[in-house]
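Justification of resources, computational component.

The compute hours requested in this renewal are based largely on the per-chain cost of generating structure records like the one below. Each record pairs the submitted sequence with a full structure-token output. That output is archived, and it is also reused by downstream analysis tasks.
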Amino acid sequence: MIFPPQAAEGIKNVYGIPMKKPRALIFRCGSCGHEEPKWLGRCPECGEWNTLTETAVSPGSHAGRALSGGTAPRSLPLSAVDPQEEKRVGSGIEELDRVLGGGIMKRSAVLLGGEPGIGKSTLLIQTAAAAGTRGRILYISGEESAGQVRMRADRLGLTANLDRIEMCCTGRLEDILVILEAVKPVLIMADSAQTLHTDEAGPAPGTINQMKFCAYELISWVKDHDAALFLSAHVTKDGLISGPKTLEHMVDTVLYFEQGGNPGGGGYDGDCRFLRAVKNRFGSVDEIGIFTMGEGGLQVVADPSLLFLVRREGAVPPGIATASVMEGSRSLLVELQALTVPAKGSVSRVFSGSIETNRVSRVAASLEKHLGLRLSDQDLYVNVAGGIRINEVGVELALAAALYSARTGIALPAATAIAGELSLAGEVLPVRKKAAREKTAGGLGFSLFTAGDLKGAALALFGSVKLG
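The structure output for this chain reads:
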């Protein structure tokens, strides 16, 4: 007797062997990963022809449950939702909590990107050891062995709370899901997204389909089990997270680890590291985390106001200005360094890695228009001590003062912090949180300077307006 393919699992074949439930079949696009229940000649998502291939989906996966019927979904009135359900857990690292908006939000996914060797794995293992939770923590390593991770933990001096950290050295999604169901962790560290793979999304890890499929499965698991996920990712040579942009839309928070230079002051050893949020559903994207990388791993900078100031003996040289800037809720004093040299070609160039080149060009144009200071035949070099990248508009007046000082050879007054936004009409617009800037500047022995217009600022800072 032959049974049809849709026979139930309890039915046996002619040999008395129970029949397995057949695996569901879908057709997945090899170009964009779009799925269809039946074959089509052209993918409706990306428009490519003959890219849909037949793929077997296991009943345990989300796609398999959707195709097989599964549990009927249900809705819930918004008024019946408990606002305290999504609670935060302290990461144990103050600067990380600041960037995340107050701690790790439960049922959230965080994507951490950065250049190779910048400290992504170090931040993950330090967070796993210091997180303020009593539950189990699963560390998934697809790039290193368990012995290598343990050696890093010993080198960083992480001796406490190692018993609650479970190691999983594999990138195969099916194995990871089995371990998740067995351990039931409250915090998951996956290092990295490019090493995750599953047989259902193709044979090779690191592809667009693999990253999207595996990330979706892990994100769905943490949202169903009251956990949180940290997912590290590689970046391209342009500094962007490699892989599909869809990955950044799938997670709740996207963090970028940036490389800084040597600290300008404050007695800190090691290189600077800056942690920024470019997307955060549970907090602000204006906050910045500041670390130094040393032999003991990532160290939190207790007083970042001293980190970007260079202490000198004697007078300040021309081209140096101290800017008062706001990074989120924190006021910082940073040293701007400007240099002007005659252009070697017919067109002047701007070299600036810490401030946008378009902003430098606009400030230089305002100086040339309203003060008559010729900069169009000069190559402009701008740097910020410590390597921090400044995006706030309040740095523009200090940048103008540094360029003016470098071009004229007149040094700025000592112990003067400058803040202000420049308009194209030559006006100096007021800045936000002036009281916080004055408090920070006063605590370091500086006086805060602002002015009503560009010409008035030049007269007050340099005593005269030098043309040419």
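The chain is about 25% helix and 25% strand. The first strand starts at residue 24 and ends at 29.
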